[in-house]
Automatic annotation (TrEMBL):
<feature type="binding site">
    <location>
        <position position="249"/>
    </location>
    <ligand>
        <name>Mn(2+) 1</name>
    </ligand>
</feature>
<feature type="active site">
    <location>
        <position position="256"/>
    </location>
</feature>
<feature type="binding site">
    <location>
        <position position="244"/>
    </location>
    <ligand>
        <name>Mn(2+) 2</name>
    </ligand>
</feature>
<keyword id="KW-0031">Aminopeptidase</keyword>
<protein>
    <recommendedName>
        <fullName>Probable cytosol aminopeptidase</fullName>
        <ecNumber>3.4.11.1</ecNumber>
        <ecNumber>3.4.11.10</ecNumber>
    </recommendedName>
</protein>
<keyword id="KW-0479">Metal-binding</keyword>
<comment type="function">
    <text>Presumably involved in the processing and regular turnover of intracellular proteins. Catalyzes the removal of unsubstituted N-terminal amino acids from various peptides.</text>
</comment>
<comment type="similarity">
    <text>Belongs to the peptidase M17 family.</text>
</comment>
<feature type="binding site">
    <location>
        <position position="327"/>
    </location>
    <ligand>
        <name>Mn(2+) 2</name>
    </ligand>
</feature>
<dbReference type="InterPro" id="IPR000819">
    <property type="entry name" value="Peptidase_M17_C"/>
</dbReference>
<keyword id="KW-0464">Manganese</keyword>
<feature type="binding site">
    <location>
        <position position="327"/>
    </location>
    <ligand>
        <name>Mn(2+) 1</name>
    </ligand>
</feature>
<feature type="binding site">
    <location>
        <position position="325"/>
    </location>
    <ligand>
        <name>Mn(2+) 1</name>
    </ligand>
</feature>
<dbReference type="InterPro" id="IPR043472">
    <property type="entry name" value="Macro_dom-like"/>
</dbReference>
<feature type="active site">
    <location>
        <position position="329"/>
    </location>
</feature>
<feature type="binding site">
    <location>
        <position position="266"/>
    </location>
    <ligand>
        <name>Mn(2+) 2</name>
    </ligand>
</feature>
<dbReference type="GO" id="GO:0070006">
    <property type="term" value="F:metalloaminopeptidase activity"/>
</dbReference>
Length: 475
């Protein structure tokens, strides 16, 4: 799909998409050019549409209602709906004619939405007809903002990175293995310009990444510890990222009794960080980034680690394994320790599909945020609220720390009680951050993979990819 700005709609033939803000009772009917649309037919209400054809001008008009005060997410969803559900209208030439009220942010949302709507889940379906070739569709954007080309290009890069994250999570676990993620990182690094190093099993053993290795020892698929570095000469800050990369989670010997079919999404945190690395480099942001993505498969065989095992960690601290299904925090512990000890970033953020407790607290609309740094917490919330990727803080009080005390090791990986699961998991991770003053843990168990109008089954959301960029832009 080629998207570019134009200065005039004159002599255009084809589909014309025009978004409208909702009009009030006393406002005149919707008018544009020589057309007048009755309020009985179209008011511009959120999620409404009106289509008509003008044969004299050889145009089809698709009017899209955005509501009275549309948010970034509202606009993005409205435009994604067009290419996702009305692709037959999108032929070779399309004009998107934006209202003067639509600023650069809403233009960005519209363009991103159009691209995201081209994504389809049927990666392995035998098509009964040739899929639409979106590369032949040319979309012209008529906007009154200054330098619309820059906004359009940025929006395309955001959507491209999010689509990559979609695929990483949606593809099956026999495709997206730890090695697949490592290869993806290498390829993206070459294409977009960041350094990649991968520690395989032997190298991880030399580095004493013992907690990371323990989780993967029951799988025939070799674990991969991915380290990525992006550097900018104009950078003033260094941000560290960690993403949980469990490519499939059986629960280990504490095997899951329900919902295992969805556990290909347990590398949603890895997808977030990998997608963000692509986008940061593609946008050329003035920031230094070091990202660690520990990738394993938590499988079951005679080599699997056992409940009651005592395992080591990169930090040198020992861990009592209470539950092998509390595995994500083990690989994150080594990821955080490795990042802090070797790279010393100013700020650290980790993303992980970590606990069902986070889903029980917030459902599927909001991620759980944990941080003792109030400024970082507020910046994350503000960034997420603006683009529609919400997160909300839960307490990090030290009273919860005692829940993770072990009598035989330095800490245990699960408190074994049916309450405060997300909080105690965060306290476990905090134990391996060496009291870093600017660290945030984001539990995306409910937001990385879910239901929506765009598919009949659960699918990836790319939650966190854009959130990170919005945060970095505001640091």
């Amino acid at each position: 799909m080629k998207i570019s700005p134009i200065k005039s709609p004159e002599q255009f033939k084809g589909l014309v998409v025009i978004p409208f803000f909702e009009v009030g009772e006393r406002d005149p009917a919707i008018n544009f050019e020589s057309y007048s649309i009755s309020k009985n037919l179209f008011l511009g209400k959120k999620d409404s549409q009106f289509v008509f054809e003008d044969k004299d001008s050889d145009r089809i008009f698709l009017l899209v209602g955005l509501g009275k005060e549309p948010s970034y997410k509202t606009v993005k969803t409205s435009f994604r709906r067009l290419t996702a559900k009305q692709e037959m209208l999108f032929e070779k030439k399309v004009l998107v004619w934006l209202e003067d009220k639509m600023d650069a942010d809403l233009l960005e949302a519209a363009v991103s939405g159009l691209l995201l709507g081209t994504y389809r889940l049927g990666h392995y379906k035998t098509p009964d007809k040739s899929p639409k070739n979106w590369s032949k569709v040319n979309i012209s954007i008529l906007s009154g903002i200054k330098e619309p080309k820059k906004t359009i290009e940025k929006a395309q890069k955001i959507a491209n990175a999010q689509i990559e994250a979609f695929q990483l999570v949606d593809l099956p676990p026999n495709k997206v293995t730890p090695k697949y993620l490592a290869d993806w990182a290498f390829d993206a690094g070459k294409k977009f310009g960041f350094d990649v190093k991968v520690l395989d099993k032997k190298k991880a053993e030399k580095e004493n990444l013992k907690a990371f290795l323990a989780v993967g020892q029951g799988s025939q698929r070799e674990p991969q510890f991915i380290v990525m570095k992006y550097r900018s000469k104009a950078a003033e800050k260094h941000v560290g990222l960690v993403g949980k990369g469990v490519t499939f989670d059986t629960g280990g010997l504490n095997i899951k009794t329900q919902g295992m079919v969805h556990m290909k999404c347990d590398m949603g945190g890895a997808a977030t960080v990998l997608g963000a690395m692509q986008l940061i480099a593609d946008l050329g942001l003035d920031i230094n980034i070091t990202a660690v993505v520990p990738c394993v498969e938590n499988a079951v065989d005679n080599h699997s680690f056992l409940p009651s095992d005592i395992i080591g960690s990169y930090s040198g601290k020992t861990i009592e394994v209470i539950d092998t299904d509390a595995e994500g925090r083990l690989i994150l512990a080594d990821g955080l320790s490795y990042l802090i000890q070797n790279f010393k970033p100013d700020t650290i953020i980790d993303f992980a599909t970590l606990t069902g407790s986070a889903v029980g607290t917030f459902g599927y609309e909001c991620a759980a945020l944990f941080s003792k740094n109030e400024e970082l917490s507020k910046r994350l919330q503000q960034s997420g609220e603006f683009i529609g990727e919400r997160l909300w803080p839960l307490p990090m009080w030290d009273e919860y720390k005692t829940e993770m005390d072990s009598e035989i090791a330095d800490i245990k990986n699960y408190h074994g009680k049916p309450f405060a699961g997300a909080i105690t998991a965060a306290k476990f991770l905090e134990f391996f951050t060496e009291n870093h003053p600017s660290w945030a843990h984001i539990d995306i168990a409910g937001t990385a993979f879910g239901d929506s109008e765009f598919a009949k089954t659960k699918h990836a959301t790319a939650y966190g990819v854009h959130l990170l960029i919005k945060l970095i832009e505001n640091l």
